[in-house]
Design a protein that fits this description.
The chain has one domain. The protein is 80% helix and 0% strand. It contains four helices and no strands. The radius of gyration is 14 Å and the shape is globular.
Length: 79
């Protein structure tokens, strides 16, 4: 039962990130230096992927986590 609750919470966190956090960051990126903004967006996205997947190990590939989540890199979305 606890596993089901955890899965539901993680799904809600992913939806929250995709619908509320990322659009604000991308909108702010247009008003600032695009190169620096893209780096910041990428950093936030990578941290969010680790948070959503609950995998904070240094040996884990964040690119693999992004692929598992189906998230495009920030540079692809903003260009």
């Amino acid at each position: 039962m606890l596993g089901v609750i955890l899965i539901v919470v993680l799904m809600k966190l992913k939806i929250l990130l995709m619908s509320l956090v990322r659009p604000h960051l991308e909108y702010a990126a247009a008003a600032r230096d695009p190169h620096i903004a893209n780096q910041q967006l990428e950093r936030v996205q990578r941290r969010a992927a680790r948070f959503v997947k609950k995998d904070y190990r240094h040996t884990t590939s964040v690119t693999g986590l992004l692929d598992e989540l189906g998230w495009l890199p920030a540079l692809v979305r903003t260009s």
